[in-house]
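## tool: complex_structure
## caller: assistant
## args:
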Amino acid sequence: MTSWRVSSSAALPKWTREEFDSFNELKESNMAGRERNQTDMDKGIVIPDDWPGYPLDLFTSPEHYCEDLECVYIPHGVIMDRTERLARNIMDDLGDHDIVVLCVLKGGYQFCADLVDCIKVLCRHSNKTLPMRVDFIRLKSYLNDQSTEDLHIEGAENLSVLSGKNVLIVEAIVDTGKTMKTLLDHVEAFSPKMIKVAGLLVKRVPSGTGYLPDYVGFEIPNRFVVGYALDYNEYFRDLNHICVISDRGKQKYKI
Ligand code: HPA
Ligand code: MG
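## result:
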C-alpha cells in the first residue's frame, strides 16, 4: 500500500503525539492510493466522528456569529479545493455531453456556483467542453435542526426541460437520503437521458438509506452544520466556512 512519508513527528513541533497519530489515521482513511477500493473513494473525504474541528480564532468569520459557532468544521479553502477535484471528475465522465445542472436551493446555491465555475475553468484549459444550462429547484423539509416529514418541492412544475437531457443534480447535503430519493423519482418522471448527483456533504446518520451521490465532497458525522449556504432557520448562509453551530446559536435563532 502506498503511504505518505512524514520524516518524524518532530517535524510538527506544535502537535502532541496523540494529535499526530490521529492525523495519520485520518490521512490513512483518506489516502488517494490506487489500492483503495471504490467504495471508500465514493464517500469523498471522510471526516471521523471524533473530528473536533478548528478553533474559530484560527480563521475569520462574521462578527455577528462570534458567539453562535462551536468550531470551523471544514474551512472554505478546503471546500474549494475539493470542489475543484469534483469538477475534474465530472468533466472526465461527462465532458463533451450537454448537461442541465439542477441546483437544489437554497442550500446548494454556493456549491453549485463554485462547481460550475470550476467546470468553466476546466473547459477553458482543456480540449473537452461541457455545455451547461443551469436550472433551479427548491426543497424544504427542515425546521430548526430537525427534518420534518413534509417535503416541499418548488419549481418542479417546469421540469419538462429535463426530458431527454443529461441532468446533474447539485445538492449541498444528503443525510437520510430520503429527500434525494423523492427528488430522483420526481426528476425521473420527466424521462431525462441520464441523471448524476453531486453532493458536497453526506452525513452519517443511523436512519440513512445508504444512498450515495455519484460525486461526494465529504462524508461527515451526524452533526448539524451551517455555513457555505447551509442554514439554521435561514441564518448562517453568509458564512464561508462550514461550521458547527453552538448551543447558544441554536437557542438564539430557534423558531
Ligand atoms: N445543516 C443544514 N441543513 C441541513 C443539515 C445540516 O446539518 N442537514 C440537512 N439539512
Ligand atoms: Mg435548510
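## assistant note: The pocket of magnesium ion (ligand 2) is lined by residues 107, 142, 231 (CB under 6 Å). Strands lie at 45-46, 69-74, 99-105, 132-143, 146-154, 166-174, 194-203, 215-220, 225-226, 242-245. Handing back to user.
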